[in-house]
């Protein structure tokens, strides 16, 4: 066999030899195993991935019977972002009737709980209208987005300004106050949406502001689950690794900084989340074979310990999908198939 | 992020259940209301529909079933259940609470 056409992590095409593909698959899984202290992929799984990349097919799919459920983040916004002039209710109808969506997700263009709070009534009306016109289960999605709670966007001193000045305690205190405010906003907005009839809440891009952001999500879920025992809450992560921006925060005695997906899911289960959406980031300077082998190694370890359904994040720049707003279908379909079939996922 | 063809459509064709074109929305409801993993959720829905698990993603089989049961269809005929009407039927069929239907009941509208 000659050269194999695949792509780099930024989506650009690249031709690689068989040995280069195999070498990148090995290096990708070893990198994840080393970082996460988890098992690398087996020889059979690496051969499966090699065969997948060696296939000349433009598009591949899972075998019949292996299909999984799809959930979305920012689902209502992706059509309007493409400058197609449709309302959000229409966007939801397009998702369920035209895009083959198993679930649909309404969200505000700012996509942050804090930003939604003052306009929650408008959002509730949009949600109630969507529920009347659609059939698929409807999530309301937003991010904890802890960065909005520090100056100049929020009330608390900015930790990123305090840290370089050596004011570590003040920075940590600011994060802790931000967590308390974010929890109130998440619970307020999620309660309103649930009481308006939402089938689920998607707490997306959680952990974007590190361990305080993740803690806010966990605490909010605990409160919501006590308030509404039947509520479905999906936890979508921001990155593969909980950044220790505070560094000393814990959840029921377990330190949050440094956790990978197979440990994050245990926290999600404790907090009462219904579905967990792990993330593994793309490294744009490495090939997709390297990135996909690495992502599958992390997600497989997560699926093996999870008691709740796992919907792996496979959008732009995560889960073996290149970091480009127009992901090429050759590598997206390979990532989709391999992630589902090796990890035995419940959804994407 | 990612345009709809590159992301939503690619994943839907590569690995999705087909949404209400098949039984994807029903299987999703079992994950969301009961926390079922994928195999259990598929088995539960197939059992309730009286079909094989392999039929859950077949659009021809599922169109017939959805029209017969009035649980929402891609090209709804005049007079058949749509939107909330269809969700009332889905809740009864699957033996689950659907939040917006529960809300209507609590207001005494059903």
Tell the overall outline of chain A: globular
Order of helices and strands of chain A: EEHHHHEHHEHHEHEEEHEHH
Helix content of chain A: 40-55%
Query: Which structural class best describes the helix and strand composition of chain B?
Result: mainly alpha
| Largest beta sheet: strand ordering of chain A | 3-4-5-6-9
Work out the helicity level of chain B: 55-70%
Can you describe this structure?
The complex is a heterodimer of chains A (348) and B (110). With 348 residues, chain A is an alpha/beta fold. Chain A contains twelve helices and nine strands. Chain A has a five-stranded parallel sheet. A two-stranded antiparallel ribbon of chain A has the order 1-2. Chain A is globular and about 60 Å long. In chain A, 57% of the residues are buried. The mean pLDDT of chain A is 97. By secondary structure, chain B is mostly helical. Chain B has one domain (5-106). Chain B has six helices and no strands. Chain B has helices at residues 5-14, 24-34, 38-49, 59-69, 84-94, 99-106. In chain B, helix 2 packs across helix 3 (38-49). Chain B is globular. The N and C termini of chain B lie far apart (40 Å). Chains A and B meet through helix 4, helix 6 and helix 12 of A and helix 1, helix 2, helix 5 and helix 6 of B.
